[in-house]
Write a structure and sequence with these properties.
Elements lengths: L8 H54 L9 E6 L10 E9 L4 E14 L2 E10 L1 H36 L1 H12 L16 H51 L1 H35 L7 E4 H18 L4 E4 L5 E4 L1 H18 L6 E5 L3 E7 L27 H11 L2 E8 L2 E8 L3
Parallel strand pairs: 6-8
Antiparallel strand pairs: 1-4, 2-3, 3-4, 5-7, 8-9, 9-11, 10-11
Helix pairs in contact: 1-2, 3-4, 4-5, 5-8, 6-7, 7-8
Length: 426
């Protein structure tokens, strides 16, 4: 399943807050536009009513509009229009002589009845100032939102370094925690209740994990130690039976099976104990090892055994190849991969060990695997049902590589098994 894109909590909350802020500004703008329109219409209606009242007052008092007004035109008509489309409002630009510019005016056309006399009245009002006010309100909202958004983003950005610093430190503690490294977790000072609770839960988890790990470790070590005593006794008794010709003449097959299984059980206990220690990072004495001399030394120690099986080694080693690892762990890697080659190689060619600046490759000729390639590093995976192997060698190698930032790959090509160890990219 495709993993969803991860977004930081602060980024997510800031984005949501900005969306709500924009929505608030948007609806506020609609509200202000509506309120401004209502105010403009109300103010204009008040002015029109005052002008209309003044005109009616003049007609009643003097029989006509005695003073010509620049903002109103009054015309006598014979009868009132029948349709009810009046009053009519119309906005238009009119040249203003005083300001020497065109201004926006609103004209209201209506009809009035004054004591049986009918008049057509056209009144105009300057609405440029109202329009400018409305534009200024709308024009100020967008810059205000942009400024507010920038302030919010910058505020959250700089504030996150202060408020989220304890949170990030706690995350680093969780990330770098390794079982068996001790239960002491440095206290991180924070005044945020959620972060404090998170740290307390982590400390409790560490204490519980360390306690359970210690119990399991002691149990495993005790079992591994105690089981060696009866195995040693059984092995000694088996050696006595092997030296007894009478027994061997009649029970040689049974004695051999007992001897092999005791050795197998002893190796299995040792391997499982070693695997447990590797998984819990007990081998931490890392150093930069130049591998050429170490490989040559190990190959020399097993050359005689390889000769008995009709096998030879072919070395192509680089002086520059090095690995940052505990020497004990590298020795385990080398011994298990070479042992694997000796156990399963055929006489079709040499066991090859090659190194360069970036990788170590060990290959041998042999038949294809009887199980899927991806299972070769699984525990207790053994080829051809080999009884001499406990099925943990390659699992040990894989676990060591995982714990030391190394990558091990397997491939079968041209009738050869290849094991390639390289450094993981940083």
């Amino acid at each position: 399943m495709k993993q969803r894109r991860q977004i930081k909590l602060l980024t997510k909350t800031t984005s949501i807050y900005l969306v709500f802020t924009f929505a608030a500004f948007f609806f506020s703008a609609l509200f202000l536009i509506n309120e401004t329109d209502e105010y403009i219409n109300s103010e204009l209606d008040r002015r029109y009513q005052w002008t209309e009242g003044k005109i009616i007052s003049d007609i009643k008092k003097y029989g006509e509009v005695r003073k010509k007004r620049s903002y109103a035109i009054v015309s006598n008509i014979e009868k009132m229009p029948k349709h009810s489309t009046f009053p009519i409002y119309k906005d238009s630009l009119i040249q203003n002589e005083e300001r020497e510019s065109k201004l926006l005016y609103r004209k209201k056309t209506t009809f009035i009845d004054v004591d049986g006399r009918f008049f057509k009245v056209e009144m105009i009002q300057n609405i440029s100032d109202f329009n400018r006010l409305q534009s200024d309100i709308l024009g100020s909202l967008i810059p205000a939102f942009i400024i507010l958004a920038i302030v919010i983003v910058l505020f959250n950005y700089f504030l996150s370094g202060y408020f989220f610093n304890p949170f990030n430190k706690i995350l680093n503690q969780i990330k770098n925690y390794e079982v068996g490294k001790g239960s002491s977790v440095p206290n991180i000072l924070t005044s945020t209740a959620e972060f404090s609770k998170m740290q307390q839960l982590f400390c409790n988890m560490v204490e519980r994990t360390e306690r359970e790990y210690t119990t399991l470790k002691e149990y495993t070590e005790n079992m591994a130690h105690e089981i060696q005593t009866p195995l040693t006794i059984i092995r000694n008794k088996t050696d006595n039976l092997i030296s007894n010709e009478t027994v061997m003449n009649t029970q040689s097959s049974s004695v051999k099976i007992i001897y092999d299984e005791v050795n197998h059980l002893s190796k299995l206990g040792t391997a499982l104990n070693l695997l447990t220690k590797i998984e819990h990072g007990e081998f931490s004495n890392k150093t930069v090892l130049h591998t050429k001399e170490l490989i040559i030394k190990h190959v020399d120690s097993v050359t005689e055994l390889a000769g008995l099986k009709g096998l030879k080694f072919e070395l192509n080693l680089s002086n520059s190849h090095s690995i940052n690892i505990d020497p004990i762990l590298f020795d385990i890697i080398l011994k298990n991969l070479v042992k694997n080659g000796l156990n399963y190689a055929t006489n079709e060619g040499s066991i090859k060990i090659a190194t360069d600046d970036k990788s170590l490759t060990i290959s041998n000729y042999g038949s294809p695997l009887e199980f899927p390639n991806e299972k070769i590093f699984s525990r207790f995976s053994k080829e051809n049902g080999s009884s001499s192997s406990v099925g943990l060698g390659l699992a040990l190698v894989n676990k060591i590589c995982q714990r030391n930032n190394l990558r091990i790959d397997y491939l079968y090509q041209d009738q050869q098994h290849y094991f390639i160890i390289s450094k993981n990219p940083q």
